[in-house]
Amino acid sequence: MQFGIFTVGDVTPDPTTGRAPGEHERIKAMLAIAQKAEEVGLDVFATGEHHNPPFVPSSPTTMLGYVAARTENLILSTSTTLITTNDPVKIAEDFAMLQHVADGRVDLMMGRGNTGPVYPWFGKDIRDGIDLAIENYALLRRLWDEDVVTWKGKFRTPLQSFTSTPRPLDGVAPFVWHGSIRSPEIAEQAAYYGDGFFHNNIFWPASHTRQMVNLYRERYAHYGHGTPEQAIVGLGGQVFMRRNSQDAVREFRPYFDNAPVYGHGPSLEEFTSQTPLTVGSPQQVIERTLSFRDYAGDYQRQLFLLDHAGLPLKTVLEQLDLLGEEVVPVLRKEFANLRPAGVPDAPTHRARVAAAATAREEERA
């Protein structure tokens, strides 16, 4: 199982001081957080993609290329790649290039985003969101899987005998997760291709997460990729820790109360009782995270959101120390002990290259 962090890259004033970082400072902080993730032994760093204030990560591959040069083991991912408004040709080429730069330590998460105006900014219509996601991804798969592509669709100009460059590293494209919190069509798409399904698991109750994950698992089996238990599932999570739970609640409360995404709404206590947000001690985070298995089944990737709502970099780095030293080692052991035989490991480039070689040998035999 893989453990890591994801960032949405918000530039939010610290409610305890009123100070907001500049864009440059926030970008540099995200890079420091990624390098710290490797230092403390995490597996994955993922960044979102946004094209509007107060967010800064408009160019994920630029950021991840920098991180690739300064890490050795960290898997570099997106927590959203906008399959609806990005050109599939550019996605194919950008992420294949990143594969080569990072020696295969790359995957990505397709999503439609949560900012409606991004569609006209890139010449698209939000009413076509689902159709764009389906058509663009179908083209992207062909661009990675086929050396020469001739294609015609509804939303972009046709391609005639086109080859995207560079080709995927070792002939194996980056692994794709399809991220969604509310759209069954995206769970269906992930299942159809045998890709991974990532449920953000931050704002929604367990019953909703169970429903979406179970739909994906059932349809994964329907399309012949394996049993429902063999489907590749990832979950998000959101935590704030101090060794004393009362200290965590007291320190995090002003950030929660003023956060752009959930501030001035339900109380911290209401939100933590109804969603996976966990504010407390490392042991409480361990127990809460292990409970995700009760409604999502055995899964392959767990990502945590740590750097948001104006939390200062020093505090985020302290959170990473707790995560890497006290939480993740226990979660690794406990999840491994609970995992039944036959449940696949999280996908890696090396494992997928080996699987592709085995498949070719079986075809020849």
TrEMBL record:
Domain Luciferase-like: 1-294
UniProt entry keywords in alphabetical sequence: Monooxygenase, Oxidoreductase
The keyword Oxidoreductase appears for this protein: yes
Domain of life, per lineage: Bacteria
CDD domains per the UniProt record, alphabetical: Flavin_utilizing_monoxygenases
Pfam families (UniProt xref): Bac_luciferase
SUPFAM superfamilies with a match to the protein in the record: Bacterial luciferase-like
Parts of the chain that traverse the membrane: none
InterPro entries the record matches: Bact_Lucif_Oxidored, LLM_FMN-dep_put, Luciferase-like_dom, Luciferase-like_sf
PANTHER family: BLR5498 PROTEIN, LUCIFERASE-LIKE MONOOXYGENASE
Name under which the protein is recorded: LLM class flavin-dependent oxidoreductase
Annotated source species: Streptomyces katrae
Lineage: Bacteria, Bacillati, Actinomycetota, Actinomycetes, Kitasatosporales
